[in-house]
Amino acid sequence: MILAPMQGLTEAMFRRVYERCFPGAIALAVSPFLSLTHNISSARGGISREILEDVLPEANVGSMPVVPQILGKEPGEFVALCAALADLGYKEVNWNMGCPVRKVVGKRRGSGLLPHPDLVRSVLDAVVPAIGMPMSVKVRLGLKETHELFDLIPVLNDYPLASVTIHPRLGRQQYSGQVDLDTFGQALPLIKHPVIYNGDITTADFAHRIRERFPEVADIMLGRGVLYNPLLPLDILQPGRDRADDPARVRHFIRSLIAEIRTVFPTEQAQIRKTKEYWCLLWKSLPITELQARQVLRQEKLTDVDNLIASLLQ
């Protein structure tokens, strides 16, 4: 199983804590995207440390293995960033062609690339021979129409990609509506690369149904489902496991993540903001009501946030 890239959520801090609490439950993580910009290099000529921060080896000690994800379409910057990642020891990169955020799409990045197969080909022509490492891609069914993926598949098939991850929604849908499993199933046999399924896996039952319906899928990628239920990967891997200690394991994970936030973020305001970002999802793994969970989000002092969470974890 693969951990999906989620900006601000599945960063190195989260990956370290998760692997420490549930070792081996997730085999691989794709990092939140590293963005290509015209100022990607620092004044000394190398890649800016700020861009590389989440994938620096020292930040990922104790994490599950990571594949860095790249967002952008600038071949020169793409190749330069891959060279820096190779120097850090990385053996594979992932190209983000799935991000649905409007400001990203408007710059023909993320899922904004999907209606432009010629542009995708020009980037792959320049990048694939130059980077000296395998590249995988993450896509959607299209930006506005599903034919966009089908127009793109022949392009992807012309390159030695490591895998193709498909989130079966359109970019314009963002994360709303149902995943389109029928269209996913139509695209699956047309792709000559290993295909990874990503999208709405929030229960072990749904993961098993995906495996049963699409046995040719090479792997599955979990996103928000891991935040809703940190034990979800174990539920998928070990259907008959002993669940007696589950509540204690979830509470330990949440406490460990909050403790890591206090270590990583230097200011009280940053700690409050980050704690609330995770709490918006993690509370669903606890036997509490939404009303109780929202009380945490109303607190403005760190001590009040911590005390209320501590009481809800009892």
Structure description:
- This protein is α/β, with parallel strands linked by helices.
- It is built from 14 helices and 10 strands.
- A 10-stranded parallel beta sheet has the order 3-5-6-7-8-9-10-1-2-4.
- The radius of gyration is 20 Å and the shape is globular.
Distance between the termini: 31 Å
Widest sheet, order of strands: 3-5-6-7-8-9-10-1-2-4
Radius of gyration: 20 Å
Question: Outline, from the CA principal axes?
Answer: globular
Number of strands: 10
Quick one: biggest sheet? 10 strands, parallel
SSE sequence, one letter per element: EHEEHEEHEHHEHEHEHEHHHHHH
User: How confident is the prediction overall: mean pLDDT?
Assistant: 95
Classification by helices and strands? alpha/beta
As residue ranges, the low-confidence spans are none
Strand content is 5-15%
Number of helices: 14
The proportion of residues forming helix, as a percent range, comes to 40-55%
